């Protein structure tokens, strides 16, 4: 089993909280990670496991083993029981590890029953830095990070991604509350793939689907909650320029994006007119996934003025603001660096990164042109 960066964070949170909720997309590796922690495991989507847990609840809660409850949102009654068990012995830590595949459903029960008693940790599909060097690194951008999606066994892409999204549209998303018919969800997913990396316009999408922008935004909330999409808000700076204020939309997993856009291999990917937006979203997701898995406190934005001054990623990490520009090139120019510095000066960014596919990092601590692995190393500092 490949080592997951987030495992250390889960262990740290279990040491100080009675319960931890590990949330993330279906098939992202949550169950494998949880079972590696050697607790008593129950899959709450299975009626037999629910019955077993119900009958042995008192003994299990009184025991010293970690109780792992997979797909916890599928059995809401368990949250009331958890609250009672925790409140009867608030001093005990590391008792429960909950696993969930959809954040809105899980968060609803957390806010009602477990507020202040539980820590939330998000797991992503495999990150670039979690993979061994070689073929899996080269495939990661094309196939994405899902363990079964082709990054480890290339023949499974893109069939696995298409089947994955089809199952979500037909079963999981309706079960979690999405009111759209599967056919509408499928059309929406393909439309959102074409809008990857663009400023979000709900009215435009709604018009294409024949529904209101309110309904589109409601549907989008479910897709974000299922960890399929990410909205990156606009950075609001106090400068004398008009700023774009609407968020940008990105697919979180590049393999799902490429499968929806019918890209079978890397050669085909590299000739697409939108390949730059794909690379941009990939770098952003790897950076944010890395920070999240390390447990760092941060806020992420993009920055754009009406005059087209733009930064692909702005990271607020407390005492510092980092400005990041992403370019799909192996030979970034001095003008690329100059443009980055001009825009970064507008928001008074303390550090600047131009992330490309260069093999020769150049610059200094304040401004660095580098490849993705080098950028991720700086995030871990």
Structure description:
By secondary structure, the chain is an alpha/beta fold. It has two domains: 6-122, P-loop containing nucleotide triphosphate hydrolases (Rossmann fold), CATH 3.40.50.300; 128-379, no CATH class. It has 16 helices and 14 strands. It has helices at 6-14, 30-35, 47-55, 57-62, 77-88, 103-114, 135-143, 159-176, 182-194, 202-209, 213-225, 254-260, 266-270, 275-294, 334-346, 372-379; strands spanning 19-23, 40-43, 67-70, 96-100, 118-122, 198-199, 229-232, 248-251, 299-304, 310-316, 321-326, 351-356, 362-363, 367-371. The strands form three sheets. The protein has a six-stranded mixed beta sheet with strand order 9-10-11-12-14-13, with helices on both faces. Helix 5 links the parallel strand 3 and strand 4. The mean pLDDT is 94.
Task: Give the secondary structure arrangement, pairings included.
Blueprint: H1 6-14, E1 19-23, H2 30-35, E2 40-43, H3 47-55, H4 57-62, E3 67-70, H5 77-88, E4 96-100, H6 103-114, E5 118-122, H7 135-143, H8 159-176, H9 182-194, E6 198-199, H10 202-209, H11 213-225, E7 229-232, E8 248-251, H12 254-260, H13 266-270, H14 275-294, E9 299-304, E10 310-316, E11 321-326, H15 334-346, E12 351-356, E13 362-363, E14 367-371, H16 372-379
Parallel strand pairs: 1-4, 1-5, 2-3, 3-4, 11-12, 12-14
Antiparallel strand pairs: 6-8, 7-8, 9-10, 10-11, 13-14
Helix pairs in contact: 5-6, 7-12, 8-9, 8-12, 10-11, 14-16
